[in-house]
Every structure is written in C-alpha cells, then in structure tokens.
C-alpha cells in the first residue's frame, strides 16, 4: 500500500481544476512546495501553464498543465484523458472550479451568465469526478476534495453573489453529500469545504506571512490549505466529510 508522511506529499499525485488563479493557484504552489506531483487545469491553457512555470522556477519539476473549461464537457473528459496518459492513478482530486457571479438582483444577469455559473459549479464538478473516478480507484489513498462555499449551506444569505451562484454551490453540496455515502465502501473519501469569503494573499508575496489571522479577522487561504492538508493526511479510517466555518462579523 502507498503511504506518505503527512508533512510531505511526495508520493501523492494531485489534480486541481481552476488552478490558473486565485485559490487554485495558491493550492498548487503550496502543494508543490510539499512535493506533490501536480496536474493543473484552467479554462485557459496559458493560465495553467503560467502557474506551472512559477512552480518549476521554484525547483519543482513534477507539474503538468492542461486546459479544462468546466462548462464544456468535452474539455473535462479531455483533461482526465490527458492525465491518464501521464499517470496510472490520481490520489487526490481537488474540485476548485466554479464561476462566481455577482449581481444586485436576479434579473440583472444574462441568461448566458446564469447557465455558465450553474454549469461550471454543479455539472462541471459532477463531470470532473465522473471522468477522474477510474484514476482515483487505482490509488491506495484516494481523496476527492471540493471547495464549496457557505453559499451552499441551507439558510445562508450573507454572500453578495447572484442567486445562480447559490444554486451552483447548493448543487455541489448535494452532489458531494451523496457521493460521500456511495464511495465510502470503496475507501474513497469525499471532503467538502464550506468557507465564507476569505483573504487570499499571494503565496509568493510578503502578505502570505503578514496577513492577520486573529479571531476577528476574515478566514485566510492559509487556513483553508491547512484544512485540506489535515484531512488528506489522516489515517484511512478517518473520513472527514466536511469543514464548515463561522463567518467573521465586522465589529463597529
């Protein structure tokens, strides 16, 4: 059986979608620093390759870049197929992709933007898992990690996102909930994170170490990365289904 030191990820092969910017880029850089072999996808192949280049410049060569538009099923299948040509397994699949849509009211967004938002967050996540499942089943330590959102929590209303984003995140949450039950007999762990809006400083900049992390501060990307590392580093009898975070209230 494949084993690994929770402090190092050298034996893990990790696929991440939406890795070309924001938290996807943060995850990629931090996981590379811990030694993981990375398969990074973004809607733009150039964006994925730019992050891969940043990682290689830090001395980590085991990183590959792909194009994957979560609203286009053929590119999701092509992403999984291209990874399968390079490796016989994937140990961790991270569903980071979901299009954000901000709008003041329901009717202010175009029909096209609404469809793309729901498709990327819900259908894109379902299709990504579907096409990567054969590779995950070949791993001794398979984990599926999905970045949902507090917007996917019943009763939540504090995000300024459009209703379509709420719908997409609720779809992600419903999918991972049933997936966790159905894949557990195979030993595949399904881990969901439900963060509120959070601070995401550049992992290669000074702010990475200086961003405030006190009890009154917003959740940080550092803490989210730590949660992912904690969950995938647990013994295989430990199934952490989800992380739910308290939203910081601004004091006046």
Record keyword descriptors for this entry.
seven-stranded parallel beta sheet; oxidoreductase activity, acting on the CH-OH group of donors, NAD or NADP as acceptor; 252 residues; Rossmann fold; 7 helices; alpha/beta
Question: What does this 3D model show about the protein?
Answer:
This protein has 252 residues and is α/β, with parallel strands linked by helices. It has helices spanning 22-33, 45-57, 73-86, 111-136, 163-183, 207-210, 221-232; strands at 13-16, 37-42, 63-67, 92-95, 143-147, 189-194, 242-244. It has a single domain, classed as NAD(P)-binding Rossmann-like Domain (Rossmann fold), CATH 3.40.50. Strands 3-2-1-4-5-6-7 form a seven-stranded parallel beta sheet, with helices on both faces. The protein is globular and about 45 Å long.
Question: What is the topological layout?
Answer:
Layout: E1 13-16, H1 22-33, E2 37-42, H2 45-57, E3 63-67, H3 73-86, E4 92-95, H4 111-136, E5 143-147, H5 163-183, E6 189-194, H6 207-210, H7 221-232, E7 242-244
Q: Number of folding domains? A: 1
Distance between the termini: 54 Å
**CATH superfamily (homologous) name:** NAD(P)-binding Rossmann-like Domain
- The sequence of SSEs as H and E is EHEHEHEHEHEHHE
Tell me the CATH architecture. 3-Layer(aba) Sandwich
Family: Belongs to the short-chain dehydrogenases/reductases (SDR) family.
InterPro entries: NAD(P)-bd_dom_sf (IPR036291), SDR_fam (IPR002347)
Organism: Yinghuangia soli
Keywords: Oxidoreductase
């Amino acid at each position: 059986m494949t084993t690994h030191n929770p402090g190092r990820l050298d034996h893990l092969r990790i696929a991440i979608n939406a890795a070309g910017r924001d938290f996807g880029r943060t995850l990629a850089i931090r996981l590379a620093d811990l030694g993981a072999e990375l398969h990074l996808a973004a809607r733009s192949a150039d964006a994925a390759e730019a992050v891969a280049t940043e990682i290689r410049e830090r001395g980590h060569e085991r990183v590959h870049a792909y194009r994957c538009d979560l609203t286009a099923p053929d590119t999701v299948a092509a992403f999984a197929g291209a990874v399968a040509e390079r490796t016989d397994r994937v140990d961790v699949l991270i569903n980071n992709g979901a299009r954000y849509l901000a709008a003041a009211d329901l009717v202010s967004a175009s029909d096209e933007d609404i469809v793309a938002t729901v498709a990327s967050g819900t259908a894109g996540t379902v299709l990504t898992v579907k096409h990567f499942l054969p590779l995950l089943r070949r791993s001794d330590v398979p984990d599926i990690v999905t970045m949902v959102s507090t917007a996917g929590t019943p009763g939540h209303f504090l995000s300024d996102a459009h209703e379509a984003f709420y719908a997409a995140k609720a779809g992600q949450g419903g999918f991972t909930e049933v997936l966790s039950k159905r894949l557990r007999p195979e030993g595949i762990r399904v881990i969901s994170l439900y963060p509120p809006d959070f601070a995401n400083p550049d992992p290669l900049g000074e702010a990475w170490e200086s961003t405030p992390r006190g009890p009154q501060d917003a959740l940080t990307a550092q803490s989210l990365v730590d949660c992912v590392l904690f969950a995938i580093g647990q013994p295989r009898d430990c199934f952490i289904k989800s992380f739910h975070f308290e939203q910081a209230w601004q004091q006046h």
